Amino acid sequence: MRTDRRSVLKLGAGLLLSHWVRAQRASWPEPPVLRAQEGRLLLELPAAPTRLKVAGREALLWTYGGSFPGPTLRVRPGDEVRLTLVNRLPEATNLHWHGLPIPPKVDDPFREIPKGEAWTYAFTVPKELAGTFWYHPHLHGKVAPQLFAGLAGALVVESPLDRLPELQEAEEHLLVLKDLALENGQPAPHTPMDWVNGKEGDLVLVNGALRPTLQAQKATLRLRLLNAANARYFRLRLEDHPLYLIAADGGFLEEPYELEELLLAPGERAEVLVRFRKEGAFRLLLLPYERGVHAMPMAHGMHGMAPADQEEPLLTLVAPQNPKPLPLPLRLARLPRLEKPQATWRLVFGEDMMAGRFFINGQAFDPKRVDLRGQQGQLILLEVENGGDMDHPFHLHTHPFQVLSLGGKPFPHRAWKDTVNLKAKEVARLLVPLGLPGRTVFHCHIVEHEDRGMMGVLEVG
């Protein structure tokens, strides 16, 4: 890939648009893919209002590179990434590399890119990293409306394990799960109750499409699932088939884990294998999930949000003729066993529903205050308690963790995570190796709660 300014500009605009047009013409929608070449991904990526057609309706969304979702960036460990974000939005923004263990001075949640300006994010993809990650805005107070308006894209880090025959010969697809509500041809604005509950939309989309159909060419599918919604939970079940979980937020499990259902909280990712046992069309169903949303009296000019009370199809998978699925891989990653933490930290989520404010340890976010301090190389036992009445997904930047227990029960499998959901009154016990030094944040990934105070600062020296 040439690195002169002209080639980078072409990659950032015209190339993305042409990829997107071809993707929309196909029967299965998938975001445009940009791959690193010769160990480098050099890209100028505009964030800008873009007129698109969504679920048969014209809409002015906010996009990365002119596509909804944004382009999928595919890299490998050791690749050099140099992405210049050009802010063509009517307000300031920034970029968070969700799940990547890269230096906080690069993945800087405190940085502000004013409208009309640009900033270059440069880093090397960490060695040994693999999995499905994503990028989205993280400017405090603006995260919720900017994410809801369409600003999100996936980043895939390929792995030597992808060459296992049981994975290499599978048919791979990315599914970006995101909901949307339109009003007068634009993303619907937040209501007061949206800031309490977290905003959900009536259009529940897969790669920007409503209830698409995927005609499988092979009997084994590898699906990379990303919940890029503000607040919607995706509780999923595939008709007549189990799902085989092979990777979580931060990469591969040690072995496949069979599931009848998969729950993805906002911000979470998962990779699953689907093994067709027979011909036919099978729906991936979105099941009801009660996350404890609140309602206010109509006299206040607000209304509550009722959880869906019935399952609905999210997409349809069509099996090939005479399917003969691949065997499951016997072993995947080797994950370290974390033992003997040097310190214990405790965080408690709190809510003031009437004021629409959210807290951690009784305090609202203050970017000038450091809430937790640690040293590089320490292993921390982090206890996170949800003291509120609704679900809160906990997300930690920079430092992946392993879940020791959740709700008093041992976690069913070892995996690297960066987001874990806590039901009301639950406690999660996490083992966190403190890695790269610097100042970063932790927060609830219902992004309205993050914007309204449920975030803290971690500094590692």
Characterization of the model:
This protein has 461 residues and is mainly beta. The protein has three domains: 5-160, Immunoglobulin-like (Sandwich), CATH 2.60.40; 165-318, Cupredoxins -  blue copper proteins (Immunoglobulin-like, Sandwich); 343-460, Immunoglobulin-like, CATH 2.60.40. Helix content is 9%, strand content 42%. It has six helices and 34 strands. The strands form seven sheets. The chain has a seven-stranded mixed β-sheet, with no helix packed on it. A hairpin with a 2-residue loop joins strand 11 (182-183) and strand 12. It is globular, with a radius of gyration of 21 Å. The model is unreliable at 1-26 and 296-307 (pLDDT under 50).
Keywords:
Immunoglobulin-like, 3 domains, mainly beta, 461 residues
Topology:
Blueprint: H1 5-12, H2 14-25, E1 33-35, E2 40-54, E3 57-64, E4 72-75, E5 80-87, E6 96-98, E7 118-124, E8 131-136, H3 143-148, E9 153-157, H4 165-168, E10 171-180, E11 182-183, E12 186-187, H5 192-197, E13 203-206, E14 209-210, E15 213-215, E16 220-227, E17 234-238, E18 243-248, E19 251-259, E20 262-264, E21 269-275, E22 281-287, E23 312-318, E24 343-352, E25 357-360, E26 372-374, E27 379-386, E28 392-396, E29 402-406, E30 409-410, E31 419-422, E32 427-433, E33 438-444, H6 447-451, E34 455-460
Parallel strand pairs: 1-4, 2-5, 4-9, 10-16, 15-23, 24-27, 26-34
Antiparallel strand pairs: 2-3, 5-7, 6-8, 8-9, 10-13, 11-12, 13-14, 16-21, 17-20, 17-22, 18-19, 18-21, 22-23, 24-25, 27-32, 28-31, 28-33, 29-30, 29-32, 33-34
